[in-house]
């Protein structure tokens, strides 16, 4: 049975490379998930949640074309199935396996679609997917900011990464639908806005506000703004490539995920440089901009705030974001879910994972000792208070979502983990409390 409104959290499987590919930032490893994965799933249930944004570590699972190591995925996804926790499966989160290189590789989209299909065939009870997480941020940080993966700083590298990333997402959706025809896809994407600092900055701000929609325009087959069209063609996209996006969208299978943090709004200077603006418009205003453009059901797929010196900063942010969610719903937008991201504190998030300093950021519902934070208590109470109160007749709650137990009943099967010959499990994969 569908949980109705989707309250969720996430366990991040980010794994970009830095230092020109010589070092991988594996957030699951840094946060102890490989060791405490059972405990982490216990914590999800402790919060009263039935949905988890979660995926296998791509660089450890995808060993080559048609070569996979499913050991850890078998343990974790069969455990989630037994608990009847629905995963929003996060297949690619900011990094590729070493053998693929980076997002400039033109072979990535087709190969990734085969990986996505192999995953769906092995774990067919999963209905919800985010094939590629935050496509725009992945391309931006890798190719214009020079922080991850390619560590480029050119428009041509950005357009190349963008077209490969979005094509991979689209092909993966098509591949998954061949296995699970009722699959739903949550495009978790950063919802940004650029404010002109002065009149001379209006032009640069308009360019950035057009560029923020580029990944979703391509993914949903929406014709891009004329300036973005010229920009893409000037930087290597062909007309045939552009028409692929117009002709292959699966918008009717999609939920638009909007991620919003205090860092999502920016001031733009006359020279095009930017600085943090903090919260000006807020989630509700910016989400309306995205909804008016795409007219899709919406899910608030990421937010958090660091617990500061007063100990209540994250709790206040949670309440503010929830008020924004209710405002969006009350204004008639079909908003289907909310997510505090992530379950535990993160490591090196303060540098956007571009530094390997081991700094723990107090962003989670639980700390890295798996002790609940005040925001975890507040989120648990919020879920308890609102889960049964939200009006069930609302269009916002009519997403045809199935839980793992629904699949088991329909197929008359019980979850049984595959017994692969030659299976070897690393000790870090088998521990759990």
UniProtKB/TrEMBL annotation:
InterPro entries: GH, Glyco_hydro_1, Glycosyl_Hydrolase_39
Pfam families: Glyco_hydro_1
Identification of the protein by name: Family 1 glycosylhydrolase
Organism: Massilia solisilvae
């Amino acid at each position: 049975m569908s949980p109705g409104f989707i309250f969720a959290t996430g366990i991040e499987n980010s794994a970009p490379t830095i230092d020109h590919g010589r070092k991988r930032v594996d957030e699951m490893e840094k946060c102890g998930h490989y060791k405490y994965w059972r405990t982490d799933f216990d914590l999800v249930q402790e919060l009263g949640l039935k949905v988890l944004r979660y995926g296998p570590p791509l660089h450890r699972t995808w060993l080559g074309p048609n070569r996979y190591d499913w050991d850890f995925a078998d343990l974790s996804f069969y455990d989630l199935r037994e608990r009847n926790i629905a995963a929003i499966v996060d297949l690619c989160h900011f990094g590729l396996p070493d053998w693929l290189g980076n997002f400039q590789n033109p072979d990535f989209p087709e190969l990734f679609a085969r990986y996505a299909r192999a995953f769906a065939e092995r774990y067919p009870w999963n209905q919800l997917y985010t094939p590629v997480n935050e496509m725009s941020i992945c391309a931006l940080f890798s190719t214009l900011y020079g922080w991850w993966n390619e560590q480029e700083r050119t428009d041509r590298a950005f357009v190349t990464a963008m077209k490969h990333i979005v094509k991979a997402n689209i092909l993966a959706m098509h591949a998954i639908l061949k296995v699970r025809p009722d699959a739903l896809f949550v495009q978790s994407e950063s919802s940004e806005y650029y404010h002109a600092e002065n009149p001379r900055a209006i032009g640069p701000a308009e360019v950035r506000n057009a560029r923020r929609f580029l990944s979703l325009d391509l993914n949903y087959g929406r014709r891009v703004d004329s300036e973005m069209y010229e920009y893409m063609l000037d930087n290597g996209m062909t007309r045939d490539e552009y028409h692929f996006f117009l002709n292959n969208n699966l918008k009717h299978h999609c939920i638009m995920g909007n991620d919003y943090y205090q860092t999502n709004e920016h001031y733009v200077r006359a020279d095009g440089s930017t600085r943090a603006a903090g919260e000006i418009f807020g989630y509700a205003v910016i989400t309306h901009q995205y909804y008016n453009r795409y007219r899709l059901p919406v899910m608030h797929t990421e937010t958090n705030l660091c617990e500061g010196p007063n100990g209540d900063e994250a709790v206040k942010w949670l309440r503010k974001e929830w008020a924004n969610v209710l405002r969006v719903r009350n204004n008639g937008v079909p908003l289907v879910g909310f997510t505090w991201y992530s379950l535990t504190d993160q490591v090196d998030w303060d540098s956007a994972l571009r530094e390997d300093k081991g700094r723990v950021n107090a962003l989670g519902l639980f700390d890295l000792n798996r002790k609940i934070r005040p925001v975890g208590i507040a989120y648990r109470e919020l879920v308890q208070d609102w889960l049964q109160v939200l009006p069930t007749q609302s269009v916002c709650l009519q997403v045809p979502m199935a839980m793992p137990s629904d699949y088991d009943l329909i197929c008359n099967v019980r979850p049984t983990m595959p017994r692969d010959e030659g299976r070897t499990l690393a000790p870090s994969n088998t521990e759990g409390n």
